[in-house]
Amino acid sequence: MPYTLTPDTGIDANAENIDYIKDHVDTGDRWVLNFGPQHPATHTTLRLVLELDGERVARCTPHIGYLHSGFEKLAEHLDYNQYVTIVSRMNYLSSISNGICWHHTVEKLFGIEISTKCKVLRTIMAELGRIQDHLLCVGAAGLDVGAITGFLYCFNPREHIYDIMDYASGQRFHPDWSRVGGIVKEIPDEEVFVRMVKKFLHGVLEEAIGDLMNLVERNRIFMDRTQGIGVITHDEAIAYSATGPVARGSGVRRDLRKDEPYLCYADNWDGNGAKAVDFDVPIARDGDAYCRFLVRVEEIKQSIRIIDQLIDQIPEGPTDVFADEKMTKPPKGEVYGSIEGLIQHFELIMTNRGWDAPIGEVYGAHETANGELGYYIVGDGSKCSWRAKTRPPSFINYSLVAKMLEGHMLADTVAVIGSLNIVAGELDR
Questions:
Q1: Structural domain boundaries of the chain?
Q2: What is the distance between the alpha carbons of residues 398 and 56, in angstroms, rounded to a whole number?
């Protein structure tokens, strides 16, 4: 169930900025300043045109378009497995989560059910991706206001996640690990994988989070630079369609893992009545940069809790649905040792006959680190989608920037942008 984080701010959040906007936003001389797109403090290639009255932001006009890659158009030319290499480059902070969500949507289109083992592994990897993303954001929250040590506390542990991704998939930064109906390959040695994950969670990660909170939790500078900064109310978050920690930091009680459960977040996920994994959804009320920071830190702790429930319960059996659905490539032993496996491999690789793609449309979404990541797919019966559209959380949350910055000091711009954790690959696609 959701629970509330209630930091004792002792201040009337955003009152000073609201009064400033009422009195000054349409008066006085303006100085126009380009913030980005080539500015290290923006964390990405985005541009804000700021109209300044002194050092206060009177108006902000956000711009995108500096990282166009034609991601959605490429879905019309790459098959449902090949396209995973593209979605992993949309949010490159937690690439694994993008691929899992994409193939969840494709499997929904095809009407296939993945194996129990695959559900467990995908849930574990999705939560590692959430931790990976949140670590960068909460570390950068300190970096953005001058605490570089906090950034190092969080950035170094991400290397351990890359090691786990590399071990499971063979690639570090863009694992491209999921496939339609399964995963790219079996975990080389599950005992080694389990040890790596446990050592990271209860050694490296817990220590890093403890060090970060000891550094900033009662730090007057950090508190003054984040409390009451970039406030978004509960109703405004809903009106702007914000999701994820941005919305939950403003008191919006929505998390797709609870509201539209999937994988091991749903009851009866193994077909034998298994209960959903137990975790809480942290909620904050003040809607400022500090609340968004707290929500992300608490979500890291909840991700540890989720993984702990699954890491020792990885079931035996296949990780794909080859035996029943003929959707994935057969094991090499089947290819070399049986005519059925050889034919299936040939049909999937050399012809279109291996894909019995339906003609239809579907929308699927996951609760990723930044909010609701969704894919809308239109299938025309071929091995590629006729059209694919992305619902990227960073793009939706970016629309809040103008509202959040008005009336703030110029120096607050960095803290506000960082609290949204915007990724340019999702802005432009």
A1: 64-428
A2: 20
Q: Is the pLDDT at 4 greater than 80, yes or no?
A: no
Q: What is the pLDDT of residue 130?
A: 95
Closest residue by Cα to residue 403 from 17, 2, 8: 17
In terms of DSSP bridges, do strands 371-380 and 359-368 run parallel, antiparallel, or are they unpaired? antiparallel
* Cα gap 9→15, rounded to integer Å: 13
Stated pTM of the model: 0.88
Write out the chain in H/E/C secondary structure: CEEEECCCCCCCCCHHHHHHHHHHCCCCCCEEEEECCCCHHHCCCCEEEEEEECCEEEEEEEECCCCCCCHHHHCCCCECCCCHHHHCCCCCCCHHHHHHHHHHHHHHHHCCCCCHHHHHHHHHHHHHHHHHHHHHHHHHHHHCCCCHHHHHHHHHHHHHHHHHHHHHHCCCCCCCCEECCEECCCCCCHHHHHHHHHHHHHHHHHHHHHHHHHHHCCCHHHHHHHCCCCCCCHHHHHHCCCCHHHHHCCCCCCCHHHHCCCHHHCCCCCCCCCCCCCCCEEEECCCCHHHHHHHHHHHHHHHHHHHHHHCCCCCCCCCCCHHHHCCCCCCHHHHHHCHHHHHHHHHHHHCCCCCCCCEEEEEEEEEECCEEEEEEEEEECCCEEEEEEEECHHHHHHCCHHHHHCCCECCHHHHHHHHHCCCHHHHHC
β-pairing verdict for 281-284 and 359-368: unpaired
Which residue has tokens 């298994």? 274
As a whole number, mean pLDDT of residues 362-374 equals 95
Shortest CA distance to 263 belongs to which of 254, 273, 251, 276?
276
Superfamily for the 64-428 domain: Cytochrome-c3 Hydrogenase, chain B (1.10.645.10)
pLDDT score of 99 more than 60? yes
Whether 12 has a pLDDT exceeding 50, the answer reads no
If you average pLDDT over every residue of the chain, what do you get?
87
pLDDT at 207: 94
* φ, ψ of residue 146 in degrees (nearest 5): 105, 0
